[in-house]
Amino acid sequence: MFAPDAVMRALGFLSRLPVPARFFNEPGKPPADDAAAYPLAGVVIALPGALVLLTIGALAAPLLAAALAVLTTIALTGALHEDGLADAADGFGGGASPERRLAIMKDSAIGAYGVIAIAGSLLLRIVSLAAIAQAASPLAAALTFIAAHGVARAAMVWHWTRLAGARPGGTADAAGQPTPDAMNAALLAGGAVFLLAAVLPAGLGAAAVAGLLVLAATAGFARLCRRMIGGHTGDTIGASEQIAEAAMLISLAMAL
Fold first, then answer.
1. Share of the chain above pLDDT 90, in %
2. In angstroms, rounded to a whole number, what is the distance separating the alpha carbons of residues 81 and 118?
3. Of 129, 177, 192, 215, which one's alpha carbon is 20 to 30 angstroms from that of 157?
4. Contact between residue 14 and residue 82 where contact means Cβ atoms under 8 Å apart
5. Mean of pLDDT over the chain
6. Residues with Cβ < 8 Å from 70, sequence gap 6 or more?
7. What keywords tag this UniProt record (predicted)?
8. Quick one: average pLDDT of 209-231?
9. Predicted local confidence at residue 1, as pLDDT
10. How far from 18 is each of 21, 56, 220, CA to CA, in Å?
């Protein structure tokens, strides 16, 4: 499940990094089959941003370094998860019924709820990263940034697996459904990343608080999705990544 081929295909699905075509030689293989490798792909996606935090953080204010790091990862993913967050916010905020919410989420236009959601996500992640760098060090911020991306992809797989599809024939439905074994492997990989990249710079107590907040935020959002639209969509899967990432960074910033 953690083979290099699976990680490369996960990167091809989750980012705009150039992945050679030879990794996609199996026609009809759904992205969900590589879900176990998503946390490791998240680590790879976060590495350039972590490098930005280290280099710019040594030369300029933590807030500038944090902003450039977050924007770097957004450029690498093509704002994939931010787009999901915005669509979910518009649908949940503007629809009066599950059918209307799903219709709004499918619309490519962005509304006020979506703009506010993206702005809030950016603000919270940037300010939290800057606070970590200022309270500890740019290295600590870089490590927690990597941990947040790995853990958030694990949370995304959990959300994807635990909820039924809300829109038959939609993007998430076409991508398949991760198996329970793939979900468990993703959670294991996310936990390993968390231990290596969060516990070391933040300490066991702060990391434990962060882990609990991520669990609560992920479970709470899944419950909201079940109530609002009856399950998951591609948009809610992306939104779950944003929520878990922000929750982890916020809690570590408060604990340090």
1. 80
2. 10
3. 129
4. no
5. 93
6. 49, 122, 125, 126, 129
7. Cell membrane, Cobalamin biosynthesis, Magnesium, Membrane, Transferase, Transmembrane, Transmembrane helix
8. 96
9. 59
10. 9, 25, 35
Phi, psi (rounded to 5 degrees) for 190: -65, -40
Structure tokens at 9: 């295909």
Q: State pLDDT tens for residues 25-58.
A: 777 678 898 999 999 999 999 999 999 999 999 9
The C-alpha atoms of residue 30 and residue 91 are separated, in whole angstroms, by: 26
Burial of residue 47, with CB atoms counted within 10 A of its CB: 0-12 exposed, 13-18 middle, 19 or more buried: middle
Assess contact for 146 and 154: CB atoms under 8 A: no
AA letter at 75: A
Strand partners, 232: 165
Q: Quickly state the pLDDT bin for 80 (edges 50, 70, 90).
A: very high
Tell how far CA 227 is from the center of its chain.
22
Using the predicted structure, report yes or no on whether residue 65 has a pLDDT greater than 90.
yes
Q: What is the pLDDT of residues 155-200, one digit of tens each?
A: 999 999 999 999 887 777 778 899 999 999 999 999 999 988 888 7
Residue closest to 172 by CA, chosen among 41, 69, 32, 5: 32
HEC per residue, the chain: CCCHHHHHHHHHHHCCCCCCHHHHCCCCCCHHHHHHHHHHHHHHHHHHHHHHHHHHHCCCCHHHHHHHHHHHHHHHHCCHHHHHHHHHHHHHHHCCCHHHHHHHHHCCCCCHHHHHHHHHHHHHHHHHHHHHHHHCCHHHHHHHHHHHHHHHHHHHHHHHHHCCECCCCCHHHHCCCCCHHHHHHHHHHHHHHHHHHHHHHHCHHHHHHHHHHHHHHHHHHHHHHHHHHCCECHHHHHHHHHHHHHHHHHHHHHHC
